[in-house]
Amino acid sequence: MRRKLVAGNWKMNGSLAVNSALLASVNAALPAKVDCDIAVCVPAPYLAQGQAALTSGPVVLGAQDVSAHEDGAYTGEVSAAMLLEFGCSFVIVGHSERRSYHAEDSAVVAQKTLRALQAGMTPIVCVGETLAQREAGNTEAVVAAQLDAVLAVIDAAQVEHLVVAYEPVWAIGTGKTATPAMAQDVHAQLRKMLTARNAEQGEKVRILYGGSMKPENAAELMAQPDIDGGLIGGAALKASDFLAIIAAAK
Ligand code: PEP
Hints:
This protein is an alpha/beta fold. It is built from 11 helices and 8 strands. The protein has a single domain (5-248), classed as Aldolase class I (TIM Barrel). It has helices at 16-29, 47-53, 80-85, 96-101, 106-119, 131-135, 139-153, 180-197, 199-202, 215-222, 239-248; strands at 5-9, 37-42, 59-63, 88-93, 122-127, 163-166, 206-210, 229-232. An 8-stranded parallel barrel has the order 1-2-3-4-5-6-7-8, surrounded by 6 helices. Helix 1 links the parallel strand 1 and strand 2. It is globular and about 45 Å long. Phosphoenolpyruvate binds at residues 9, 11, 167, 172-173, 210-213, 231-235.
């Protein structure tokens, strides 16, 4: 039985005051022991604030991106070592917004995954198809190529340190959600790929669903056998919605 993971992706939202209120509400509502793992992936300038606010309680800190490089002349980038200094346990890599707005290809995403693993953080590796790719019947091929690029560069012994997030691009921030059955189909395919790389460890990897997950659909999605939690965008910005999704993760 895999312990579920609910990870909030704040994207480029927030302010010191707004974050402070949001984290205080989430912290105050959660008991010390909960039935799932919880993370919030905050914008880089707020990592110190997140680190200070999450010293007790079940919520851990994550980042939204990491450089593919170790250090050096890469203006604007943030290294894995830097994220670690601020107590990050998780880092999102290959989010579709990075792939599409910043031209990150799967080779870069694979390098970022390696950097996170080398630093001892858990990468949340995002994969997912566009609407055009789904309508052309290419979902399986697209997500397979995205995950394969990562599995090709890591050791078989590192498979268990991954979290994978299936995020159909057409469902992100649109209010459209994959049906539980549609999502489960893709999650089962991803599970097969992970277990092919490492039979024992592939069973342990959490595969999250992301794409307009909200209190109304979270329980049904997370009841699917291979859906081990959620990567939550919009609903992570409202304490009551984020808490309701956490409550649905058992
Ligand atoms: C995301 O940004 O990863 C995401 C899933 O966003 P939303 O929940 O808003 O669709």
